Amino acid sequence: MKQVVAALIVRDSKILICQRTEAQAMPLKWEFPGGKVEPEEELRTALRRELDEELGITATIGTRITVIQHTYHNGNAIELHFYRVDEFEGELENRIFHDVRWVERTELKSYDFLEADVAFIREISAGQVL
Question: What are the tens digits of pLDDT across the range 10-26?
Answer without folding.
Answer: 999 899 999 999 999 89
